[in-house]
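fold-stage: in
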Amino acid sequence: MTLGNIVDGVIIGVSASIPLGPIGVLVVQRTLNKGHLSGFVSGLGAALSDTIYAIIAGFSLSFIVGFIESQLLWIQIFGVIILISLGLKIFNTNPAIQLRRQKRKTTSLLQDFFSTFALTIANPLAVFLFLAFFAGFRVVGSENTLIDNLLLIGGVMVGAASWWLILSSLVNMFRSKINLRRLFWINKIAGSTIIVLVVLAFSIWITKEYIL
């Protein structure tokens, strides 16, 4: 059962991370702009956030879920504002200026990690995603021991981290072919994509929750 929990956790972690939303676009953009390590570390920030929400879902921390449900609209609005601001910043980034700044100072990997963690943790809907995954896989129940649940959560972390390693590695393979002109347009496309995805996702959620 313990090995099965690890495997299930890995599958859930990968499945929850694969959809290329705003965070995925950000990881791609950072890999192209700053390098493989920056992209992967940024992905690890998202993986840690997903793991925290998996813990909340896996251990059925009802008081946290209840708080998220009661404040969901305001949390969503806060997350939307932050992500749109990020999209605008990327859209307006000049790659030539960015490269000169990187030569003058060392890029902070901790900043990459915690910025992505903060952006991902601002999306509380992730906890309900993991609740759905756990229910679908039937991996959480009263018969599970603490060790079973811990191994399941560990598998989620490994699965999520593995996806970000794969994505950043694949993008890094094409990094040498990207010149400043292409990077300029990649920033424009990445910034625009983040804004569009955020606005679209928020609009769909508002429609389902308050209109339909």
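fold-stage: in (second)
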Amino acid sequence: MAATTSTDGLREPRAHDDVRWLSADEQRAWRAWRDGTARLLDVLAHELEQDSGLSLGEYEVLVRLSEAPGRTLRMSELAGELAHSRSRLTHTVRRMESAGLVERAPCLEDARGVNCTMTEHGWRRLVDAAPAHVESVRAHLVDVLTPVQLQALGEAMLAVGAALQTGCAAAVAEAEGR
């Protein structure tokens, strides 16, 4: 419930008749997703860090760069692919650069842009980390679900991601139009 401020300065809850509250089944599904996701990401992060010394964020940056031509992406494109804010990505990449995993350089095509390139050291770290991480993903997610459940999960998250990406694009367009 939201709150309003009363004449005496105290905050009072107010009803929202227009809110579409979650049903019991929707609440169970929401909480199951939230709790399962948090636990899954926690265990994957812990095992990856323990096995390779890489964080999940660092690993994902290396994966995306490994799939790009020349193992290079513009920072803005990398941020979009990872659904990270630019400041969060900049912090992660700065740490990775200090560790010799990536290098940043001005984009030749656009002086305002910055490219991020995986180094040979970064490539070796990714190659070393990938087998254990894939086994962890398999053990804690893929093998826990039936193929139908895994397919449904993937489709559901694609829909959520697309809706959020569309909403973010619309918000940016609206802000730029002002």
